[in-house]
Amino acid sequence: MKISIERGTLLKAVSQAQSVVERRNTIPILANVLIEAEGESVQFRATDLDIEVVDKALAQVERAGATTVSANTLHEIVRKLPDGALVTLTDDGASGRLTVEAGRSNFSLATLPKEDFPVMASSEYACNFTANAAQLRRLFDKSKFAISTEETRYYLNGVYMHISDAEGGKVLRCVATDGHRLARIDSDLPDGAADMPGVIVPRKTVGELRKLLDDDEMDIAVSVSETKVRFATPNITLTSKVIDGTFPDYTRVIPTGNTRRLEVDAAEFAQAVDRVATVSSERSRAVKLALDEDRLILSVNAPDSGAAEEELAVAYGDERLEIGFNAKYLLEIASQVDRENAVFMFNSAGDPTLMREGNDTTAVYVVMPMRV
Predict the structure, then answer these.
(1) Residue 353 DSSP symbol
(2) What is the pLDDT of residue 183?
(3) CA separation, residue 226 to residues 56, 141, 247 (Å)
(4) Predicted confidence band of residue 284 (pLDDT cuts 50, 70, 90)
(5) How many alpha carbons fall within 13 Å on the CB side of residue 225?
(6) Local structure of residue 285 (DSSP, 8 states)
(7) 310: number of CA atoms within 13 Å, CB side?
């Protein structure tokens, strides 16, 4: 195999591949990227047996062929090469080495046979549809902060993507929760997605997928089966196993009878929470909200480090209420608000609180209170 490829193109393809590769591997071949050159393009394939990413790039292919080389080493080499350099990759099958040349730089890397590289079996997808990158980015970006990191409740270690009923009809919905907070984000149902089986997309896949969704104009081909999910742009295909488990009935957690309504400037609120939380003890980070007629007092009382208090002008017309929350959860939820105002719906100091952006019901957040 012999190919020539522009450094920027190569770096983009290799960085996408190497981020999938696990740093610590018991199977040596999994640390490698499979390079396949044919026609006028070259493919870079990497996998950790749960996720597979294939990145296609244009290149001058002098000799078609395939080999595997350490993804991390190749990425580091390409990253350090000068911008605009033309990189030549030559694989000499007999010596088991891949030569990387650019200008006066020359590297010789150990390879492993391409036959040993595990390629993810392509499954039959029950549902195929196209969604806009901006639409998918909103669904996953706004929900991923609530993914649980608790290994024992593995079925919460991802974002539950499914079709659901909303006020205006069926929607494509993403939900994530860790038991303390929940995010539920809706978007218009793409054509052809009505029969999609609900799947739990793992945390790592959500992170890798984010790299495909930067271009707002891009359309992403989405394929879903009971065991796998695939997201594809013309150049990159990301295939992942889904979490084998049943996502809990999250609708029971979303309160419907909360009547006390607080409207507050989201950015001001987040900054004030951040300021008063500075003195709180790391362990609990509890912030108390005291609500009265059109004013909110945020306070933290940490006996070992000090106390803080800040007052905000807000829109609130219900009876007096005192309620405590984990500062980190409040900040994460407030930072999801794209519009100016955040609306909180309270019931009592011991009940879950609902938050949304203005009157928009397509993004709903729930956070459990803390004793303060």
Answers:
(1) E
(2) 97
(3) 27, 23, 13
(4) low
(5) 12
(6) -
(7) 15
- pLDDT computed for residue 371 by the predictor: 83
Angle at 174 between CA 172 and CA 179, to 5 degrees: 150
Contact by Cβ (8 Å): 349, 258: no
- Segment holding 74, helix H or strand E: helix 71-80
Residue 247, token pair as written in the block: 């996502």
Residue 201: predicted pLDDT: 98
pTM exceeding the 0.85 threshold for the entire prediction: yes
Beta strands (DSSP E) in 251-349 are 260-265, 286-292, 295-302, 306-313, 315-316, 321-326, 341-346
- What is the token pair recorded at 257? 């009878």
Ramachandran area for residue 105 (φ above 0: left; ψ -120 to 50: alpha; else beta) = beta
**pLDDT tier at 125, thresholds 50, 70, 90:** very high
Unique residue bearing structure tokens 């106390």: 307
Q: What are phi and psi of 53, to 5 degrees?
A: -120, 135
Dihedral angle at the C-alpha atoms of 262, 264, 269, 272, nearest 10 degrees? -80
